[in-house]
Amino acid sequence: MLVILASMSVLVEPQQPEPPVKPDAGVIRDARVRRAQRRNRIAGAVIALLAIGALIAGLLESSNSNRAEHARATLAFQRARQRRQARGWYISPNLTGGGYGWCVMEPVGASCPTVPTENERTSGARVIGTAVGSVGTSHEERITLLLAAGVRGILANERSTQLHTRARLPYGLRIAQIEYPKKTWTEHASTLLATGANGRPLGEINQESAGVEANIRWWEKPERPASGPCQIHAHGLPALQGEWGHVATTISPYPARIIGRAFFSCIDTEYYLHNWPLETSILLDAQYPGAFPAAIPGMKPITGEPELFWAPGDWHGEITATRNGNAWVVVAGGSGLRQREEVLHHLTASVRL
Asked: What is the mean pLDDT of the chain?
């Protein structure tokens, strides 16, 4: 509640006509003036106290409302995290404007962005997978990998190590982990070699995330949204307010050969609706930006909304998406599916290739 305090004047009834002047008339008149001034001060003080009380009540009400919204947002975030933990390991498109590839989602975290590539290095070695994250203890190192089909094992510093598959993904990809004594890793060159059936060498594992990012323009309210080849605009819903975002200055194919398919986010805008954050983005095919993009992993149609789809998302929350030409327009997070649907119905997206 917003309480506006305006300057207020106190109305006092006019005095009755003075009787004829007597010797003590000046004294009596001064006493009456003092009483009138005292009444004015008391009335002004009462009005000021009432105004302050109204302001405090408004602030308390606003604070209670904000606390309630914060509690609901916290509960929604906790539920989304529990759903991610229940799903375990999966991949979701990286939504940040200017970013290529995937977020690799683990039960307790995420690695963004990463792109699994398969290409020849200048040295002639073949790259057939990507290391996306690592966790170390005083005795052990654990590395998470995004691997191409056909990989059966990993040699860490020329030593065989056990490979644990965590999830099988589209395009023959899979999320896997290796574990080995930390001493083995620190005393030798850090190399990972993928092997196939019968221990046959297949190629190296790229130990960089390969998450190339395009040149971007970043903006934040009250600035105007940055311009670029991709644009998102809200309309018809005054409460839907854009707070910040990233816009790629150009749209370019990913510079290396991608294993399977992946996405390029050419723009993202963070909107707020009734204090709920909603991440919006336009996704193109990363290798061929003008081509019809692939389905988002885990995508399912929404009952009663033939043009809308649902999919598990990254740390922003679950995704609701719709096709727009050769692009996906997605909304992630918010209070739930219905709010994301409402936002999608009030967005206009455009792509200029």
From this structure: 79
Q: Does 60 fall in a domain?
A: yes
Tens of pLDDT along 147-166? 988 899 998 888 888 899 99
Angstrom distance (rounded) from CA 109 to CA 89? 10
Q: Residue 64: what are its φ and ψ, rounded to 5°?
A: -60, -40
pTM higher than 0.85: no
Residues 96 and 238 in one domain: yes
Q: Give the burial string for 235-252 (b: 16+ CB within 10 Å, else e).
A: eeeeebebeebbbbeebe
The verdict on 336 and 230 lying in the same domain is: yes
Rounded-to-10 torsion of CA 169, 174, 179, 182: -110
Q: Rounded distance, CA 353 to CA 336, Å? A: 32
Instruction: Check whether residue 334 and residue 233 sit in a common domain.
Output: yes
Cα 276 to Cα 239: distance, rounded to the nearest angstrom:
11
